[in-house]
Specification:
It comes from Micromonospora sonchi. The protein has 412 residues and is α+β, with helices and mostly antiparallel strands. It contains 10 helices and 17 strands. It has 2 domains: 90 residues, no CATH class; 311 residues, Major capsid protein gp5 fold (2-Layer Sandwich). Helix 2 packs across helix 3.
């Protein structure tokens, strides 16, 4: 032990003459002098913390006195306390110490634009489609044969995979956690699983270069590649009421394999945080000023219409988009048809029986002498380690490009 620490302890004990007389409260008051009280919490909590602090300090003082006087048992007890770091924590309590809150999380939002699937195992699963046979009927003349029409099948496939991690802490760390900072470790792992779902969904339809170029393409006719603003034609427009109108038009002009229309009842507008204000201003506007026919909408040739889009369009702000898409992540926006009506644009699948994140704590491989259960918080036999683990199983695939449209927002 250092000479400085011995000197400090001797000076402290000099203030505790009343200790020998057995008046512990006076001894504690002598060293406190109004200090050693947490500044946070309510008055009752501060009084309780002050009493606890005084009790622990007095106990430590007894050990220190015994060590000075040559008591070997007291010396061993004091050294044990020092090894756990309690001495530093006790004298550090005069500072207002608080644990800052964790970052805010939000519920997963991908079910607004992707279908939820269920799979039996880790083998590749297939989602079959059957198209054709729905074209308008042909006229059949008298005694003429009925024409035969064809139907075609296709499929999408994917396999789920296992994701997970663990956090291990020592028993000593848990003992010293007087701020209860580590009690939410399982919650943090659950939040990690939630983030994994959201990022996985975002990476299916977006990548570092922008909207998935295989899925969103001119061939699939689901890129907003032209919109008219006044007399100017703009490709990949930024998010405006006119551009959203054109997106609805592109989505509504998609045709099935028989050349018939695809009915879309409702859509989800998926935007990055940078476009949250613009998207909500469009959807929550009380009315829209629209040109009636050939006019530019700036003079008398206008209509004031109720904003009917608020009943057709749902806004989802996806903060993963600018992280996944490093090219146009702050400007690209997407419109998805309702995944629960008709054929979805994409599907996320989960293993049956394991469809939510599963949190685990390692059961201690130890037993008390004489028997008795050992709680997981006591740690394992070899290292006193406490281990938490999360596991989730998911997969997914893009499906029908006719159910989505996109714009990079980089006008060209």
């Amino acid at each position: 032990m250092s000479t400085a620490l011995l000197d400090a302890g001797t000076a402290t004990l000099g203030q505790l003459d009343t200790y020998h007389a057995g008046t512990e409260n006076a001894a504690t008051s002598a060293i406190f002098g109004g200090d050693g009280v947490l500044l946070s919490g309510n008055r009752r909590q501060r009084r309780q913390e002050s009493r606890d602090y005084q009790r622990r300090l007095l106990d430590l003082t007894r050990r220190y006195r015994g060590m000075i006087e040559g008591d070997r048992r007291a010396a061993l007890a004091f050294q044990e306390a020092m090894s756990r770091g309690d001495f530093t924590h006790l004298f550090g309590d005069i500072i207002d110490r608080q644990l800052l809150a964790a970052y805010q999380t939000r519920p997963v939002q991908w079910p607004s634009y992707a279908k939820r699937g269920r799979v039996r195992d880790f083998r590749t699963v297939k989602r079959f489609t059957l198209d054709g046979g729905e074209a308008t009927l042909n006229q059949v003349k008298e005694l003429a044969p009925y024409k035969v029409r064809a139907v075609t099948d296709s499929h999408y496939e994917y396999a789920v995979a296992k994701y997970g991690d663990q956090i291990a802490v020592s028993w000593e760390t848990m003992v010293n956690d007087d701020l209860d900072a580590l009690t939410d470790l399982p919650t943090r792992l659950g939040n990690a699983a939630r983030r994994t779902e959201e990022k996985f969904a975002a990476q299916m339809f977006s990548d570092a270069s922008g909207p998935n170029s295989t899925f969103f393409s001119t061939a699939n006719r689901n890129i907003i590649n032209s919109t008219v603003v006044g007399s100017t034609v703009t490709a990949n427009p930024d998010l405006t009421i006119g551009a959203l109108q054109h997106a609805m038009q592109v989505l509504g002009q998609q045709k099935d394999s028989d050349g018939g229309p695809i009915y879309v009842e409702g859509v989800t507008l998926v935007v990055p945080p940078a476009l949250e204000v613009a998207a909500n201003n469009i959807i929550n506007a009380t009315e829209i000023l629209a040109a009636t026919g050939g006019g530019d909408g700036t003079a008398n040739d206008q209509l004031r219409v109720t904003n009917w889009m608020r009943n057709r369009v749902q806004v989802v702000v996806n903060p993963w988009l600018p992280i996944v898409n490093t090219t146009s992540g702050n400007s690209a926006w997407y419109v998805f048809a309702n995944p629960n009506v008709g054929r979805p644009a994409m599907e996320l699948g989960f293993l049956i029986g394991h469809e939510t994140p599963e949190l685990w704590v390692k059961s201690p491989n130890a037993m008390r002498v004489g028997g008795g259960p050992v709680a997981p918080e006591e740690g394992d036999f070899e290292h006193d380690a406490i281990q938490y683990r999360v596991r989730m199983v998911l997969g997914g695939t893009l499906m029908d490009p006719k159910s989505a449209v996109a714009s990079t927002g980089l006008k060209s």
